[in-house]
Every structure is written in C-alpha cells, then in structure tokens.
Prior knowledge:
hydrolase; PTP; Tyr_Pase_dom; Protein-Tyrosine Phosphatase, Chain A; alpha/beta
Amino acid sequence: MESETSIRTCLALPLGGKVVTLGFPGFAFDAQGEAFICPERLAATLDHAALENCALLIVLVEEEEVPEDAFGLLTAACAKRNMQLIHLPIRDYQAPDAGFIDAWQQHDGQRRAMSARSETLALSCHYGAGRSGMMAAQLLIDQGVAAQEAVARVRAQFPDSIESDAQLQWLLQATQQNV
Length: 179
C-alpha cells in the first residue's frame, strides 16, 4: 500500500519546469489529535514522482505551526535528496509582508535559472492550499500568465487553493507591483 502524501498541485511553468504545492511534508495527527511528523508520509511526499527533479523546497509556514522536530526532520530528509530547503514564512491566511517580498525577490534569479533548466520548485505551507497556492499563482504571473488565469489554473487542480480574500487581492494587486 502506498503511503499518503501531501502533494496538492503540479503545474507546468510557461518558461520551463514546474511548481508543486504541498502540505508540510509528513505532517499528521495521532489518535489523540496531537500533531507529529510521520516519517513514512514525509518520505512518500518527497519521493513522489511530482517532485522528481526538485531542486528547491520553499516552506511558507511559521515555525510554531508545526511540531518542534518538524524542521530538523525535513532538513535532514531534503539533504538526503539533494533538495535545497528555504524557510520564508507567511502568516496563515495572510498575504506576504514586505520582509517576505524582499526575501522572495532575493531568490528570483535562482527560480528563473531553475525554470530554464526545467527543474521543479516545491512550495509548502501547512495544508498546501493558501500560502503555497498563492505563491504558485504568483510564479505563473511572474512568467506572463494573467492573474485571474493563474488563480484558475491552481484552483483547477486543488480548489481549496488561495484560501483568503487577502491572498487573492494580493495576487491581483501584485501583478501591478512587479513582486
């Protein structure tokens, strides 16, 4: 039996490569409702075919949203797979703040080079819908897709994507701000 993964979308990028959205790899709850990182689910997610050729995983959760050992386990799992891990938190249900935008822009060249090499970029938040869906749509917009079309493409694969009005409005406005 295949282990469950947290993969939500796998979208082709217009300039090459793809973006994959996912929930925090391995995140699960036990019978008492306590959150933990399931090693099998973590491995199944990172080893999923959608993440083949994945050079970079950007994690958008705030540290307090996941179990204490989550980042240590994820860092080790990514290193084992030669996958770079970058933590760029956005508050849940919110749009990015100025600090995030500055950090995101610092990696613009890396993301463009990955597209040119047809590599995969993964975006993870808590559930794999709001923040990761928003930033996947932003990547599409960055590569020339109209904002409404970018949102539609992400939601066509995972309807829960881009969870809040704040996230949607940010995408629509960011188109004019060159994020």
